[in-house]
Amino acid sequence: MTQQHTPILPVILSGGTGTRLWPLSREGYPKQFWPLASDRPMLVETAARAEGPGFAPPMVVCNEAHRFLVAEQLRGHGARIVLEPAGRNSGPAIAAAALLAEEAGPGTVLWIMAADSAIKDVPALHAALGQAAAAARAGRIVTFGMAPTAPETGYGYIEAGADVPGLPGVRAIARFVEKPDAARAADFVAGGRHLWNSGMFVATASVLLAELERHEPAMLAAVRQAVAGAKRDMDFVRLDAAAFAAAPSISIDHAVMERTANAAVVPAAIGWSDIGSWAALWEISPQDGAGNATLGPVELVDARRCLVRSEGIVTGVVGLEDAVVVVTDDAVLAMHRDRAQDVKKLVEQLRAKGRKEATEHRRAYRPWGHYEGLILGERFQVKKIQVRPGAKLSLQKHFHRAEHWVVVSGTAIVRRDAEEILLRENESVYLPLGCVHRMENPGMIPLVLIEVQSGSYLGEDDIVRFEDTYGRA
User: Fold this and answer.
1) Cis geometry, peptide bond prior to residue 148 (ω within 30 degrees of 0)
2) In this predicted model, what pLDDT tens digit does every residue of 236-248 receive, in sequence order?
3) Is 31 exposed, middle or buried (0-12, 13-18, 19+ CB in 10 A)?
4) Any idea of the CA torsion for 213, 219, 221, 222, to the nearest 10 degrees?
């Protein structure tokens, strides 16, 4: 896409957890970081749609806990990463982005989008964006309305009004409609006046801030204070936690779009899906002659219209129709496709029982790489650890456990109290309880090792950090 104006600033909101895509999507590693609609993670796909002439480097607003995931996946994209110290819905997140964007000029056009939507027709998206940007420069706050392909009850709807004079392709908004029941959704589709609300917005920073000042002055004041008190370190902008927490939790739809006189919509047919459920993913996935969508080591016999995904182990399905089967290394989901919206209830049930599988994967990501639990027994635990080239763990000690590291591949430099030890493949080191230690990968390939922990307490909170490259406490 080319523009004669100041480049459009993509603002990517990456705060969701994608509960309905459990067991793949969980709080610790939600759906935007997974490859779902292609072989690239959703976040990377989203950023790639907003690259090239006419676009500024993206701004990403994300959960502080996901900061290193975002930084790693968007390495090379020049992203500016804004950290929400607490989830306050889309209104405060967008307000913070608009305030930061205003530094580049109040007329900066923001293209605000979720990190986890799929779009098949990017040229059509850019054409619609051109119409929306023209309307934004004329003082409008524009959303994209998707022509509904089915009576979907999981989306909000927009009733489109009359054409806006002088702005081709742009229409006024008659009203917003919350998620309807099936009968009402069918009426919307048949009537032809209603569009799915995509959750994408285009507006200048100045217009957005003026409308927030008009309709949500207390929220804007709190966010303004959070931005004024922000700290900048590494690739991150850390909003002031106390000020941001004081902002009311409200969506941009309720804060501005349903109240402003400047709202407009660009109807678009771009192959959009928010992939809000396993049923939605089945709809957009390649299917075989029997309507089955599969990924991973999957074998089917007499199955029809099923979605089957395995992240590792062989998964067989025989004689099922309209089923969803998802297999990860620590959980299995099996359900009728029509019950896709009820996965959230299952996650809530698991959470109520204190099951860590509700929110955490066995693999945990850190700024230096990742680790995953292999065996957990009484007073011992075995983990597999992978450290990125050039990365290092914090300088630390433990009060309740000793550790034994065995290098599987790569090279490690280990500090153990006053010693510095070079370890190669098939070599090991013992770290007694209480010793101060650190591991670093000085090589050009990932360092992989097995860690055996033993002691009276093996929790991740038994750690005292003396020094950390990544600014963790």
Assistant:
1) no
2) 999 999 999 999 9
3) buried
4) -160
Q: What is the DSSP string of 451-471?
A: EEEEES---TT--EEEE-TT-
CA 182, 307, 47, 244 torsion-angle sign: positive
What's the pLDDT tens digit per position in 419-435? 999 999 999 999 999 99
Calpha distance 170→266 (Å, rounded) = 5
Q: Which residue carries 């006024």 as its tokens?
A: 172
> What token pair was written down for 185?
């959704």
Give the whole-angstrom CA distance, residue 340 versus residue 345.
10
Which residue in this structure is represented by tokens 């941001």?
244
Locus of tokens 């919307």: 188
Per the confidence metrics, is the pTM higher than 0.85?
yes
Which CATH fold would you assign to the domain 9-273?
A: Spore Coat Polysaccharide Biosynthesis Protein SpsA; Chain A (3.90.550)
pLDDT-based confidence at residue 4 (cuts at 50, 70, 90): low
**CA 269, CA 122: separation in Å to the nearest integer?**
10
Q: Which CATH number fits domain 363-467: 2.60.120.10, 2.70.70.10, 3.40.1620.10, 2.10.70.10?
A: 2.60.120.10
CA atoms within 13 A of residue 371's CA, in its CB half-sphere: 18
442 prior amide bond cis, ω within 30: no
If you count them, how many residues does the chain have?
473
Which helix or strand (DSSP H or E) is residue 93 part of?
Answer: helix 90-101
The letter for the amino acid at 420 is E
Write the burial class of residue 286 (CB in 10 Å: 0-12 exposed, 13-18 middle, 19+ buried): exposed
Angle at 390 between CA 387 and CA 396, to 5 degrees: 60
